[in-house]
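Supplementary Methods S3. Input chains for the assembly prediction are listed below.
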Amino acid sequence: MVTGAIAVMDAVNLLQNPFGYSAPIWRLFNEAPHAGAFPAVAPDIATGTASTPAAPATLRLQARIRDSRVVDTRFRAHGCPTTIAVGAWIANWMVGRDVEELTQLGARVLRAELEIPDDRAHCALIGEDALQALLSAIRGISA
Amino acid sequence: MPYFDHNATTPLDPRVLEAMQPYLTGPYGNPSSVHRYGRAAREAIEAAREQVARAFGAQPGEVIWTSGGTESNNLALKGATEGRTPTRVLYGITEHPAVLETAESLRARGWGVETTAVDTQGIIDWATFSVQLAREPVRIAAVMVANNETGVLHDVPRAAALVHSAAALLLADAVQAAGKIPLDFAASDADLMSLSAHKLYGPKGVGALFKKAEVQLSPLLHGGGQEHGLRGGTENVAAIVGFGAAAELAQIELAARQEHLRNLRERLESGLRARSGVTIFGERVARLPNTVQFAVQGWEGEALLMALDRKGFGVSSGSACSSGKGQPSHVLLGMGIPRDVAYGAVRVSFGMENTTQEADRFLAVLDDIRAAVAAA
Amino acid sequence: MIYLDYAATTPLDPQVFDAMLPYLAPGGADLLWANPASTHAPGFRARAGVEKARAQVAALIGAEPGEIVWTSGATESNNLAIKGALEFRGLDGAHVVTSRTEHKCVLDTCRYLETRGVRVTYLKPEADGIVTPEQVLEALTPQTALVSLMWVNNETGAIQDVERLAPLLRARGIQFHVDAVQAAGKLNIDLHATPIDLLSLSAHKLYGPKGVGALFVRKRPRARLAPQIHGGGHEQGMRSGTLATHQLVGMGAAFEVAASRREDDARKLGDLREALWQRLSVLPRILRNSPSSALSAAPHILNVSFEGVEGESLRASLPGVAVSSGSACSSATQEPSYVLRALGRSDEQANASLRFSLGRLTTAAEIEAAAARVIEKVQWLRELSPLWTP
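Predicted structure tokens for the full assembly:
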């Protein structure tokens, strides 16, 4: 009976957005595609992490690289729903892209795609920082 | 029984009760809470704010919810003077106790408090008012839109022009005016205006203060930060929703209400004038369409009230706030009415559910009472 | 939606609504909606309703009806008590003792009085999150005019020992104001036995209507207040303004119901609260911010910090459960909760706290469902976090 109640609540969850987050943030926060982790050390896995002490928030991105292309991703995040949504969005976006394309993604695009309001702008920055860290790690693999 | 005391309070319009019901028995929620029920309450409050603003010529951002007309007047006068170097506060001698007592309380805080005289009809003595304003700095002056006892109406734009030329603020108490005559905050040019829902077929326990954006007020109630820091305390959602509904109805039905009430007033007044020894106060000037305050020669008002009550008529002598205190009305005394005449004052204030038959019956009962006393 | 935010507000009891309606609705021959200050038959009938309600409120707290002053709510009651007491005494050189954990309306009122030259001591709670009588006594000075403390802390449900403090302050001739908003109807309040001078009450926390509250003002010895709202002299000159009859009648009816159910409600709520804690305890690394002992905690509030999750995400993951952030009342200023600080919580722990507050309609099934959802979401957020090590 209780499990049933939770299932119903889950379905209702997606319809409700009582806290007024933007639609993309709310969806990504609830669905969180690509949440999780790859093994920490593997020849084709790159890991990039960024933190801000202010919020505080931490975002960790992981990518499996093959022939300079991202074939799979994972993310983990500790922070507000916007931070989590940023991690999920980046992880999702990276799949299938050339490594070079990753350099084109910055905070401005994140803010636009996720409709991040001014008071959460720092969540887009942590996304940008985590991606930069990931890129450094990817170059480390190739080198 | 015929209830002729609508300036004391009015019955709730059934349509207002219907609007309020879901917020009394339905989704509860502290509007300050973030969860879904809280947001529903917040939206209802803001919708009501628009209704009240629209009905009375204000912007939604100018509307501050309060617990009633008394609190609104307190907030206006104390809020405008708190924390400032004291200068002077002026109020018309016929103002409601909520203005009068509040203004007087400012003496203890170092403010100079002065009254402005009225003429025999209850209208502010404009010449004296100008002189008073010019003499020394004034922070705020109070001139009511409509008097609760006599129904006498003031030219608010005229008061505003005089007050503003002295770089002061004008508080226009519109508690009795809203819903009875056209009321437009913007057109009035007043800086502050007080309103009360239960005078226009809305619920008791809620009122509003209209405040021009540029007017700086200190809060009266601290804590909670509601109403942009101007009025702390959990909002009374159902009452606010009721006020919005009542305001909207008053706006839509104003012409019909004025006509209905005016008919009743004129019917009663012509009957009173046809009888000997009756004085109608403020007779020669514009008054609220529903209000007649009069005295019967040789009669003590409280006794007449009780006799009328026994016959089933609900009237009052002056304001409900000061009735039963055995003092003659300060409004009438201020108009220069002799004490013994003022003691005999009776106020009839009609409402929408009153009829011409009731007005006629009132006159007949008045005659009966006089005849009975004359015979005794 | 599972509603567990009864400390924020409560639904109107249908019995209370039924009592209010005759004084609110039009129609009906007795015109109970008349102004209770009017001196005609309908006015007198309305007045009778007001006085009956006054007696009902007095009865719940062991007071005399004449000691109840109607206000528009607890915020106004607190304003009236503190400003009124200080202004009557005179602000010159006055000193007030209160605590940092008081409700915002008390703190803001005190800060306002500070701008007018009153000195205020804001006591910090000790290790268990409450302010003790000893702390208060130590803070007193010859100029102390008033002590103001809440009976039950609204964040954690912790009970402050106002019953022990009251006679100690009376012996020293110092006025004592107690915010009893979360205590009324939950704890036994008997002002015949406890010499508190001023006590604030709210209707909408006890299944009554919003927009009405009361302030108990003791008659013997007389607690003197300078009125804060002037006008026609209502409420023995202490609070002018037309009485909203239907609201007062509602508060009276709600308080009468509360008196009859208090013990049963308290027992049931306490049991449900413990069931909630037991269920949540399957999670590792959670902290109970509410006292465990029944003697020191109000029965309806449970405040818990969840390690390893971020507070906003925790609340956002629970849209189907209405709760408060554990430090809601201070969140307006973004100040950390003093109560949780005193308990030794870090900013993060304080941030990731939830206040569950139970009520008459709460069922065991709701507790189970809410707990299951919280457990599921905390586990999910912890797994999602790169910083969590199980």
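Residues 328-333 of chain C have pLDDT under 50 and may be disordered. The longest strand of chain C covers residues 144-150.
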